[in-house]
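Ops channel
N.P.: pipeline sanity check, posting one input/output pair.
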């Protein structure tokens, strides 16, 4: 399924889809992986990488000192997890609002904390160049 088809299915509702979609796990434990939020696409424009977050706990709310690892799953390399950053500003429902930067095939944007300040960071996942 391409990114465009996925968007069409979301826009038209699953009831109108003529294709059956069976969920498949992309990662394995022991750490947990997830993606949020409902209005953000996890796939890159080429449908190769799926963004995600990784945590080593799930039985409580995130605390002030908790971090989540940000990464992407390479669908063309055995669903390999590729970590690229950390965030100290996340929730279980929305994550850190990690998403592909519109108009870019290699940059993501996400929320983080810098000391006591909340910031957004833009990271080129291929070059590692980051700006706040």
């Amino acid at each position: 399924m391409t990114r465009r088809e996925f968007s069409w299915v979301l826009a038209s509702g699953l009831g109108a889809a003529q294709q059956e979609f069976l969920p498949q796990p992309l990662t394995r434990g022991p750490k947990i992986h997830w993606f949020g939020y409902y209005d953000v696409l996890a796939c890159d424009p080429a449908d190769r990488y799926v963004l995600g977050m990784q945590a080593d706990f799930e039985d409580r709310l995130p605390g002030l000192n908790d971090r989540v690892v940000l990464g992407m799953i390479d669908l063309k390399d055995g669903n390999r997890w590729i970590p690229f950053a950390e965030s100290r500003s996340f929730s279980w429902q929305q994550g850190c609002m990690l998403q592909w930067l519109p108009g870019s095939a290699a940059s993501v944007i996400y929320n983080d904390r810098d000391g006591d300040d909340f910031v957004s960071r833009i990271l080129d996942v291929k070059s590692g160049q980051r700006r706040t």
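N.P.: looks fine end to end. Residues 25-131 form one domain.
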